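agent> Task received from the user: take the single chain below, predict its 3D structure, and emit structure tokens. No templates, no multimer pairing.
agent> Plan: (1) validate residues, (2) run structure prediction, (3) serialize to tokens, (4) report one or two observations.
agent> Step 1 OK, no nonstandard residues flagged.
tool_call: predict_structure(input=
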Amino acid sequence: MLSSERKQHLDELINEVAEGKNLPEFVVGVSNVDGEVYSYVGGKKTETSGSIDLDSIFWLGGETKLVTSLAGLILIEQGKLSMDTPLADYFPQLRNPIILGNVIYPTIYKPAETVLTVKHLLNHTSGLFYPKVADGTLGKPYTSKDGYLPGIPLKFEPGTDFAYGWSSDVLGFLIEKVTGQTLDEFLKENIFGPLGMNSSSFYLTSGLRERLIDLTYREKGGRLTPWTGQLQIIEQDPAKVNLPLGGIGLYSSVRDWLTLLRHILQIQAGKPVEHPIVTRETVQSIFSPALPEAGERSISTLTDLVNWGPNTQWSTAMALTTEDWPNRRKKGSLFWDGYTGCEFFVDPTKGIAVVLGIHILPWGDQELWNTV
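)
tool_result: status=success, residues=372
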């Protein structure tokens, strides 16, 4: 546990960083390999704000990719999938993808030469991509409007580069095909249940909705206002959720996320763990770079552009910091963020995990990025 002096120092540090920033209420949680050691609640209350703490519910957005990747790795450990499993074995639509000459104006294309596999989904070298959307809304998936193309469009030849896109969503669909369960059911059976993550789900059931923190929206002038549907978001009515989206759809709490990250830290450190969800070898793979040189350049450009730090790789599950980022993350740290601003990192060298829970849109809020 932290001493009262160190806790006070952390309180003062976060106060100093957040002071004067126009941010909605947020919660920070920290864990070491043994348990939770620190929490902090800050930011501005809105008229509709309720209480907020480590058990409050947040829409995690892109952080969802971590648990979907872990689910895929579990199936590989069980021998039900392999890194080299062709996706077309389960989805004939992916048998003959095409490579676009230009992702914005897809009039020039050529057939892909490489078979899409599970590995390409895990390390995001599939070429499946999110379209660029200027107003911060969620990009739309491929639809029938793309039907004039002779195959599923990819940004590049599979395995040659990195693209942040639909890879984790397709992996979630694959998990459902292989197991005969919904992604939510598989995760509850293999990750959430064993770890006691009772506040994590793709469905906002009544027990979770009451603890869901309201979304806030920053207007162009900088003022924070309550969320009233200014942008399209994912469906939140559980009765209307047809497909759990493995790339963006999870709801969880800071405490649950710390539980998962601590479990990963414990396995990575070789500590005795009751009912480990994956082997140490698999955990080591999520702390190991998996991108080719071009992919490393692409993701480093992306993360540096949005102030997540330079020198980045992707593993079989999440982004990795490949060099120390002064006064921020250490080399070897696992990290990512979500559509509403939630963030986390795991430092295996120091043996700590840090999670930020916050709800602010549009994505890419500068006040938040300049703070964290």
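agent> Step 4: summary for the user.
The CA atoms of residues 6 and 12 lie 10 Å apart.
agent> Done.
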